[in-house]
Amino acid sequence: xxxxxxxxxxxxxxxxxxxxxxxxxxxxxxxxxxxxxxxxxxxxxxxxxxxxxxxxxxxxxxxxxxxxxxxxxxxxxxxxxxxxxxxxxxxxxxxxxxxxxxxxxxxxxxxxxxxxxxxxxxxxxxxxxxxxxxxxxxxxxxxxxxxxxxxxxxxxxxxxxxxxxxxxxxxxxxxxxxxxxxxxxxxxxxxxxxxxxxxxxxxxxxxxxxxxxxxxxxxxxxxxxxxxxxxxxxxxxxxxxxxx
Length: 244
Ligand SMILES: Cc1ncc(COP(=O)(O)O)c(C=O)c1O
Known about the structure:
By secondary structure, this protein is an alpha+beta fold. The protein folds into two domains: 2-108, Type I PLP-dependent aspartate aminotransferase-like (Major domain) (Aspartate Aminotransferase, domain 2, 3-Layer(aba) Sandwich), CATH 3.40.640.10; 118-239, Aspartate Aminotransferase, domain 1, CATH 3.90.1150. It contains seven helices and ten strands. The strands form four sheets. It has a three-stranded mixed beta sheet, covered by helices on one side. The protein is elongated, with a radius of gyration of 23 Å. The structure holds pyridoxal-5'-phosphate.
């Protein structure tokens, strides 16, 4: 961020932070969401804080905030009337082109309830991540991400698994874990191999190697100690060749 902000300032480019997954994380001790001109968070179902669907924008510019408020609600403002009356009213004006981008009250209420429990969610996820890392460190064929346990609010737990001969073992691993009732995710399939982007395709040898090694293990607030143990030992057994 430091580098990007520096470039933005020098070249007069606005910085919009894609902070979709970063709610609750820090950068150099400060909460994400206030570094650039605008930061966008996502609250969809897989995020650490969810509203079911939706998101929010944070910014420090009253003029821009006014524009966004109108744009998100069909270009409607109730401001003029409200300023004079200070009570609910039937009056509204369409003052600009706008969209239906506002969050429903039902979704917002889910988010507010989640927000009260947010710190608890993150503490538990940090605990699971540290437990996984501690257990997997030193197991042959497992690569761990470099993590900042203090600043990062983890939303998933991804590791690399590889065979010494670089044989693809991932699909067998997913199958082995599924048989044991453990669901494995892949975050993510690279965009450049998606059919829609085929015409732009270029060889990206490192991405293409690494994506065949990445697996995301279960990470959720309700995870019990027994479940955590089962996942850890299943991974270990597979990597020791007992599951292959
Ligand atoms: C990095 C990143 N940006 C943007 C999005 C989009 O989020 P939404 O569609 O909820 O705005 C996601 C969703 O996971 C994401 O991971």
